Amino acid sequence: QGQLVESGGGLVEAGNSLRLSCRTSGRQFSNNGMGWFRQAPAKEREFVAAISWNGGITAYGDSVKGRFTISRDNRKNMLYLQMNNLKPEDTAVYYCAASRLAVGSRTPETYPHWGQGTQVTVSS
């Protein structure tokens, strides 16, 4: 059973940047698509970004397209989310997840492995 651990969250002012990291351990996810989701209080979990097993295909939620970039380094067992021009509405707990598919998807149900989440708070 693999483990995913997020880091890099924090409190930032609007317009600034943060880089989230997700370290995987216990098993290899290099053949799996991976993704980032977020959940704000009283809201459903929202798709943020996904990346294929080799990084060749990426997808983004409409609310973050053009501001966030997902990437991965399979040699280091790491997944990243570069978040630029942050807005107060980006405030949420961010989760990384490993998919059962080779290409990440927008659907949480296709991700059997999840991290515990990291809080991102953007002040106005």
List the helices and strands and how they pair.
Blueprint: E1 3-7, E2 10-13, E3 18-25, E4 34-39, E5 46-51, E6 58-60, E7 68-73, E8 78-83, E9 92-98, E10 113-114, E11 118-123
Parallel strand pairs: 2-11
Antiparallel strand pairs: 1-3, 3-8, 4-5, 4-9, 5-6, 7-8, 9-10, 9-11
Describe the structure.
The chain is mainly β and 124 residues long. The protein contains no helices and 11 strands. It has strands at 3-7, 10-13, 18-25, 34-39, 46-51, 58-60, 68-73, 78-83, 92-98, 113-114, 118-123. The strands form 2 sheets. Strands 2, 4, 5, 6, 9, 10 and 11 form a 7-stranded mixed β-sheet that branches. The protein is globular, with a radius of gyration of 13 Å. The mean pLDDT is 96.
Percent of sequence in beta strands: over 45%
- Residue share in helices? under 10%
Biggest sheet: strands, sense, closure? 7 strands, mixed
Total number of helices: 0
> How many β-strands, per DSSP?
11
Structural class label: mainly beta
H/E series? EEEEEEEEEEE
Radius of gyration: 13 Å
Question: Mean of residue pLDDT?
Answer: 96
- Can you tell me the overall shape? globular
Detail the poorly predicted runs: none
Short key terms for the protein model shown above:
single chain; 124 residues; mainly beta; 7-stranded mixed β-sheet; 4-stranded antiparallel β-sheet; 11 strands; globular
What is the gist of this entry?
The protein contains no helices and 11 strands. It is mostly beta strands and 124 residues long. The strands form 2 sheets. Strands 2, 4, 5, 6, 9, 10 and 11 form a 7-stranded mixed β-sheet that branches. It has a 4-stranded antiparallel β-sheet with strand order 1-3-8-7, with no helix packed on it.
